[in-house]
């Protein structure tokens, strides 16, 4: 974790999008710092976090951008998407509406981002098993139809967050290398 002084072979920009309160900021902080903050305030002012990883003996610095509350006003601008090689599109498995909005986010993404952007669909809060409102199968089918990668995650319990990011970053690496 953290950044260390080393030659950087690649720099990947990844954006995190999805409805408000689905857990985007917590997913980001889980991946970047292995932290989950119980007192999750809005992240106004924080633009991105970084984590440096190694794939195939290459040092890859990832810059992961957070919408920082803009999603509430549908004010995510094209500057946010510019240069992004990957997108984590997050919904909350306990909030049907956040899954229904995924198609809209996808449309926005495809309108603004690069054509070959790697998209990872993420059903977050999978720790809240008893409150599930979106069957995993529905999301799987949607992802398959739209050509997206898909994982259910829990930022709280650190389930699949690492795997989802590493899968997306490995695919980006495969495309750019
Ligand atoms: P954002 O608006 O999409 O950035 O969402 P936040 O990251 O601020 O999280 C919104 C709320 O969901 C906060 O109360 C978090 O503590 C909670 N939350 C985020 N991820 C999880 C998770 O994996 N499991 C559970 N149970 N709660 C989560
Ligand atoms: Mg947030």
Automatic annotation (TrEMBL):
It is found in: Endomembrane system. GO terms for molecular function: GTP binding; GTPase activity. Keywords: GTP-binding, Lipoprotein, Membrane, Nucleotide-binding, Prenylation. GO terms for cellular component: endomembrane system. It is a lipid-anchor. Belongs to the small GTPase superfamily. Rab family. This is Uncharacterized protein. It comes from Picea sitchensis. The chain holds residues 5 to 181 of 222 of the full protein.
